[in-house]
């Protein structure tokens, strides 16, 4: 194919009086001009992977992507393709024409003790723990399991229960275990730290142990989670229970590390894959692995995944899984987006179990303390709070800040004052984040400074204090942050430094405090009143009723007129 540079194509074409050789060149120049006008613009995607470049890049050489004038705020968006551009090279599977082997879902055998439990006792248990059952399948919801002896788990699980000091199921486990083990689709809505991970890991292990796993047909169970930290934690729980008690294998799949070893582990064959949607979709696009064998799908923290914009990736992944699968969805809230996803991908007669409220609420095991102060006072206040905490003993303390630069500054400040602390944020490599988390989890370093990258899914046992050095943008973020303490029925304390700059969130914070029965500082209510007054002033100014300082001189106004009028005042 003939190609010509853009600077050559812009030169003047020769006239008809010029030699024939020049006219031939002129024809080629005109052809090049037409090609340049019709050619696509250069690629505007950042850091396209080689397998992605052919479908994302619109330049003539898609494997040599370039960056064209993107701002820093647009770079993160450019990394994630649009819904219409995702997985263009993935074929749509026609499951109606595929001969897939049948599989079994129902492995639940109700014990005599559970069967003999009266409806009055069942209703009393659900009322005590604020458990509500909804959905089209609510009439056939199994009775809850109140003791471990009622579970039909294999004997190998008992040492793990004893080692974990688990004496009875948590409320969500008591109701979810019989539902999931009976093969039904489930939507579970529960607070963080309620034991929902084990509520689906054990039924998934029983499901996988009863299936045949031919090599090269992908995992039997797929768990999707929003962040790599949560993927790692779920994988740790799954490893302890699935491999320890059932002899099952699994692998985590997430970004930030090379995907070559992840593909190799999936090729060798695993029972369970715990993954972030983006990385799993990347691996599926290579064609090295498929999900034809998957019969058990879990969407953990579905609300968070939708907030992070993973809905297109989730849809593409589910399109690769057989439609007669069993699907379990977990969420901390029940917004319209999650409801729509559940209605589309779960069977119509699925069951919904809610522990507590579907609205945003904090864990009642957490004591919430709010200090209202100015921005310049926050650093000294934090040092004083940490000094008081460490006098009780080195209690695990998690400090949340808004910006990555603040993490670095605050870490240096704490270390200069003699506090042993580590930090984690999105710009750190995965290995450094793992090291920091391991030191914090083991207790070698009692303080961790983090951005919201660690807010959801960070499961560290016995975090005693959570400090909001910077208040998050939303009350949802606040609830998820403080949910790192008070887990597994333990008590915890959250301390929040609230400034006048956060006045817009004061009303919502008061609602969260009141719902949990916490004390509301008078200064916080004053900030609400201040914000209401400011909003009223803004509205009046927009309507033109508050015009101080808005008068403009006419175009031909003479300054001498103003001086003359001023003299007359004296």
For this entry, give a set of tags.
disordered C terminus, Rossmann fold, 14 strands, 41% helix, 2 domains, 570 residues, eight-stranded mixed sheet, 22 helices
Question: Can you describe this structure?
Answer:
InterPro entries: DEAD/DEAH_box_helicase_dom, Helicase_ATP-bd, Helicase_C-like, P-loop_NTPase, RNA-helicase_DEAD-box_CS. Belongs to the DEAD box helicase family. Keywords: ATP-binding, Helicase, Hydrolase, Nucleotide-binding. This protein has helices spanning about 5-10, 20-40, 50-55, 70-80, 110-115, 120-130, 155-165, 170-180, 195-210, 230-245, 260-270, 275-285, 300-305, 310-320, 335-345, 380-390, 405-415, 430-440, 475-480, 505-515, 520-540, 560-570, and strands at about 130-135, 185-190, 220-225, 250-255, 270-275, 295-300, 325-330, 350-355, 365-370, 395-400, 420-425, 445-450, 465-470, 490-500. The protein is of the alpha/beta class and about 575 residues long. The strands form two sheets. Strands 1-8-2-7-6-3-5-4 form an eight-stranded mixed β-sheet, with helices on both faces. It has a six-stranded parallel β-sheet with strand order 9-14-13-10-12-11, with helices on both faces. The chain is globular and about 65 Å long.
Q: What structural class do helix, strand and pairing data support?
A: alpha/beta
How confident overall, as mean pLDDT?
A: 80
Q: Write out the CATH superfamily name of the largest domain.
A: P-loop containing nucleotide triphosphate hydrolases
How are the strands of the biggest sheet laid out side by side?
Answer: 1-8-2-7-6-3-5-4
CATH class category name of the largest domain: Alpha Beta
Strand content: 5-15%
Silhouette: globular
CATH architecture label of the largest domain: 3-Layer(aba) Sandwich
Indicate the CATH topology of the largest domain.
Rossmann fold
Oligomer: single chain
| Overall number of strands | 14
How many independent structural domains?
A: 2
Radius of gyration computed on alpha carbons: 30 Å
Helical content stands at: 40-55%
Distance between the termini: 87 Å
**Tell me about the biggest sheet?**
8 strands, mixed
């Amino acid at each position: 194919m003939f190609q010509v540079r853009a600077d050559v194509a812009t030169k003047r074409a020769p006239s008809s009086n010029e030699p024939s050789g020049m006219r031939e060149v002129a024809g080629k120049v005109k052809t090049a001009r037409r090609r340049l006008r019709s050619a696509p613009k250069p690629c505007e995607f950042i850091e396209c992977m080689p397998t992605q470049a052919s479908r994302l890049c619109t330049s003539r050489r898609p494997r040599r992507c370039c960056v064209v004038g993107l701002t820093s705020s647009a770079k993160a968006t450019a990394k994630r393709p649009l819904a219409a551009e995702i997985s263009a090279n993935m074929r749509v599977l026609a499951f109606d024409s595929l001969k897939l082997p049948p599989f079994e879902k129902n492995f639940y055998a109700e014990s005599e003790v559970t069967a003999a439990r009266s409806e009055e006792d069942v209703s009393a248990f659900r009322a005590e723990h604020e458990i509500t059952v909804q959905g089209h399948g609510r009439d056939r919801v199994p009775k809850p399991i109140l003791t471990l002896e009622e579970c039909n788990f294999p004997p190998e699980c008992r040492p793990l229960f004893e080692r974990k000091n688990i004496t009875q199921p948590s409320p969500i486990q008591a109701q979810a275990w019989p539902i999931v083990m009976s093969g039904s689709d489930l939507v579970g809505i529960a607070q963080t730290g309620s034991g929902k991970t084990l509520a689906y890991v054990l039924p998934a292990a029983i499901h996988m142990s009863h299936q045949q796993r031919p090599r090269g047909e992908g995992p039997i169970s797929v768990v999707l989670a929003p962040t790599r930290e949560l993927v790692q934690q779920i994988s740790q729980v799954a490893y302890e229970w699935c491999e320890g008690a059932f002899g099952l294998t699994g692998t985590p799949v997430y970004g930030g590390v090379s995907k070559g070893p992840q593909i190799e582990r999936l090729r060798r064959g695993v029972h369970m894959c715990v993954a972030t949607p983006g990385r799993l979709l990347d691996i599926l696009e290579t064609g090295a692995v498929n999900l034809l064998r998957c019969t058990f799908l879990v969407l953990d923290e579905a609300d968070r995944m939708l907030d992070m914009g993973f809905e297109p990736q989730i849809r593409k992944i589910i399109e690769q899984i057989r439609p007669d699968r069993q699907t379990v969805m977990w969420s901390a809230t029940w917004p319209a987006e999650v409801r729509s996803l559940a209605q589309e991908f779960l069977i119509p007669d699925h069951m919904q179990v809610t522990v507590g409220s579907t609205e945003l609420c904090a864990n009642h095991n957490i004591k919430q303390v709010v200090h209202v102060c100015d921005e310049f006072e926050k650093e000294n206040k934090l040092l004083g709070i940490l000094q008081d905490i460490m006098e009780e003993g080195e209690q695990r303390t998690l400090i949340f800040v808004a910006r990555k630069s603040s993490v670095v500054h605050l870490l240096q400040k704490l270390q200069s004052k003699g506090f042993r602390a580590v930090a984690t944020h999105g710009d750190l490599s995965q290995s450094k984040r793992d090291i920091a988390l391991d030191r914090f989890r083991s207790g070698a370093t009692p303080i961790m400074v983090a951005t919201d990258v660690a807010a959801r899914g960070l499961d560290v046992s016995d975090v005693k204090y959570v400090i909001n050095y910077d208040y998050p943008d939303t009350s949802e973020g606040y609830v998820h942050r403080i949910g790192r303490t008070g887990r597994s029925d333990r008590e915890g304390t959250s301390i929040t430094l609230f400034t006048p700059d956060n006045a817009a969130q004061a009303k919502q914070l008061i609602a969260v405090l009141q719902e949990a029965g916490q004390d509301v500082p008078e200064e916080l209510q004053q900030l609400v009143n201040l914000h209401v007054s400011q909003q009223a002033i803004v509205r009046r100014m927009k309507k033109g009723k508050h015009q101080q300082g808005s008068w403009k001189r006419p175009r031909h106004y003479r300054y001498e007129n103003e001086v003359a009028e001023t003299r007359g005042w004296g």
